[in-house]
Amino acid sequence: MAFTNKKAAEASLEDNYAAQGDSPQISTKNVIAKYSSSVLGAAIGTSLFIRIGNVLAFGGPASLLIAYIMYSSVLALISNCLAEMTVAYPVSGGFIRQAGHWVDDALGFMAGWNYFLYEALLIPVEVNAICLVLSFWTEHSKDSGPTAAICIACTVVFVLLNTVGVKIFGEAEFWLSSGKVILILSLLMFTFITMVGGNPTGDAYGFRYWNDPGAFAAYLSTGSIGRFEGFLACLWNASFAVVGPEYISIVAAEVYRPRRSLKSAFKTVYARFGLFFIGTALSVGIVIPYNNSTLQAIVAGELSSSSAAATPWVIAMENLGIRIFPHIVNL
């Protein structure tokens, strides 16, 4: 049967996938908007808020920015390839099933277990980050009792969200992702406003810290070798923090009319790379210098966990005399 209408052809393909058992499992109401928002925020993790300050101390603002640009560019190319396969073959399991379909079942088996271990190891990372954030308000959160309670509570929440119906999971993912997107945008606005003088001190610091102490920091060694090692440390962090296209393919079979919805969702990947990851890397290098005493003490382990809960933006806010916003950021 020949199709003269592109939409009719796409609908026929989607109906064919539904007949194979990969029909959508979530509500179709506002699915594109909610799906795109979830995709934007799903990959924004604690590494982008907390760990990035340590990496700034390792390599400096220029190394951090270059590393994030390089890794985002590579992942954007991967995203293009993944988008073509996912739109053509929108099945449950995403890139894991695609690896088995397009290459070999052994590759799909390996990709599945590799991704499971990757996601499973993220759970203790997230729990540890929650403990750090809570210690911003009270040092008792680092005691054995509260720490155990936090771990149990987080584990219960993770299990419940992954065992309830997919509609509830989708709603939770949407609202949690929206919160992270709003936070990132707020921090970028904070950076711009304060760097042009909109702060209690009236100091328009601009790109001052790129000149003093400098754009590159030496890590482990001294001289050019040390600066290159600092760049490698930033690139290592970028490889952990900059993720996302795989999330789109994994839930491809859960959306209505995937060949239409997925095209819109994959386009948001470029906004995430450019605004959230690269923009955040630039922002961190603007608000504080890599040799900031608090940041260096945190990296060296000389400060308590309550100080480690402070992100680079919180350190900058406290240095500028801003008292309320740090509590909002840590929420």
Q: What is this entry, summarized?
A:
This is Amino acid permease/ SLC12A domain-containing protein. With 331 residues, the chain is mainly alpha-helical. The protein contains 15 helices and no strands.
Please, could you describe this protein's structure?
This protein is mostly helical and 331 residues long. The chain has one domain. Helix 2 packs across helix 7, helix 3 runs antiparallel to helix 11 and helix 7 runs parallel beside helix 11. About 5% of the residues have low confidence.
Keywords:
331 residues; mainly alpha; 15 helices; globular
The number of helical elements comes to 15
Classify the helix fraction into a percent range. Answer: over 70%
- Inertia-based shape: globular
Largest sheet report:
none
GO molecular function: amino acid transmembrane transporter activity
Domain Amino acid permease/ SLC12A: 40-331
Main location: membrane
Transmembrane segments: 55-78, 115-137, 149-169, 181-198, 269-290
Write the layout of secondary structure elements.
Blueprint (H helix, E strand, L loop, with lengths): L5 H14 L11 H12 L3 H43 L6 H8 L2 H30 L9 H20 L2 H30 L12 H4 L11 H19 L3 H6 L7 H30 L5 H8 L4 H4 L3 H8 L5 H6 L1
